[in-house]
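User: Assemble these into one structure.

Assistant: Restating your components, then the assembled model:
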Amino acid sequence: MVKSDVSDNLKEKAIAKKTAVRTSIKAEKRRVATSVKGVVKRSEKSANSKVHTGKLELLITIVNRKKADFYQDLLQGFEVNMQLACRARGTARAQTLALLGLEDSPKTAIFSIIREDKIPDALAALETKFQTIKDGGGVAYTVPLTSVIGVAIYGFLSNNDKTVKEDKQ
Amino acid sequence: MKTFEHQLIICIVNEGFSDLVMDTAREVGARGGTVVSARGTANKEAEQLFRIDIQPQKEMVMIVVPTALRDDVLHALYKEVGLNTPGQGIAIAMPVDNVVGISDGKPNAEKSENDTDKK
C-alpha cells in the first residue's frame, strides 16, 4: 500500500513538473514572438519614416553681387537652411576690365549646405538661370562633407524636422 | 572609389597677393578664380616659435581646375607665393564633384594647343 502511494506521488510530481515546463516554454515562445513583432514593427516604422540619412555637401555659388539675393532665394527652394554669403571679387586682369570699361567685378560667394539628393535639381536650376538671366552668369560647384556632429545640427542642415522631434524624446 | 574631374584649390595669402596667385595659376593652365577677403588667426606662440610675423588681413583665392592640373598649380603656388615668400601663402586642394558654369573643362594652355593643332 505504502509503495503504491509513493509511486503515485512521484507520478503526480513528474506530471506537475512536465506541465510547468510546458507552460514556461509556451510563455517564452510568446515573449519571443512579441519581441520579434516589436522589432519588425520598429524596422517598418523606421523604413516608412521620413528621417533622411543621406550625405550633405557644401555648395559654393559665385555670382554677381547684384544677383546674390536672387540666387540665395532660389537655393532656399531646395531645402537649403543655412547659407553664408561673402563679398568677393573676380580675378579678371585690371587691363581687361579697363578695356571693357569696367572698374571692378564685385561678386558674392554663397556657401550653402545642401542634401546630396537635392543637388541635381539645384544645379540644373542654377545652370538655367546662369544662361538666361541678364548679368546672372556664375559658377557653382559642390564639395562633399565627410562629417557633421550633432543630431539637431544635422536635422537643421538637411531640413529634417523628424530628427529634431526624435532628439526631444 | 569615386573619381573627381575637378579640384578646388584654395590659396590663402597676405592681402595684395591675390593677383600674383592668379598669374601663377594661369601660367600653368588655370582659367579664373574668385577672391574673398579674410582675416587670419595665427597662434602667437607659434609665430614666436617659427619666427614669422603673420599679417592678419588675408585674401582667399578659390580656383577650380581639372584634376590633371592640380599638382602643377599647387607646385607653382608653393614656389611663387609659398610660406617662404612675402605672400606667405598656404594652398590646399579638395575634390569637387558637380561643376556648373564653366564653359568647358579645358584650361587655356590646353585649348591654345588644340587650336594650333587644328590650324
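Residues 105-119 of chain B have pLDDT under 50 and may be disordered.
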